Amino acid sequence: MQKKFSKRITVLFLALCFIILSYCLYRNINKAIQPRQQEVQIQEKNEKKVYPNLANYSNVSILVSIKQQKMIIYSGNQVIFKTTVSTGAKDSPTPTGKFAIEAERGDFFYNEESSEGAYYWVSFKDHGTYLFHSVPTDCNGNEIKEEAEKLGTPCSHGCVRMSKEDAKWFYENISEGVIVSIH
Question: Do the strands 160-162 and 130-134 form a parallel or antiparallel pair, or are they unpaired?
Fold first, then answer.
């Protein structure tokens, strides 16, 4: 009887060891095959940003996080740029989903209906309706200070706002067809 009991304990112990070992191996293998993302520090306001040369990267894509009010640019699974943006206000939300950068772009626009303009716009939905662009300006191209101070909060009419410097780099470097995911 004691021998049977001892055998059962040994079998249970070995089974437990096998389960623990399998779990550890599974976790290590999973970590090894999962892509590792490198975090890019967001520069302080007074610090000069370093923009990546996209010619050095392939498989570029853009992620806009509405919750975090951040735009992250990837090369494959590697983060190559991250910055603060403003997405749509509650009554005029930024569309969510998967899009592609469209052909329409320009260095300035002004909308008389909203009395706001912006520099360096790039369309991502409905061919000029939903854009990436700078913080708003007046009709003369002067940045509207109150609007610029809202960067990092959901306050746009549905577009994705960013600093003028970020918008200029985006306009000059992001190609038509680059995939944009917004969630």
Answer: parallel
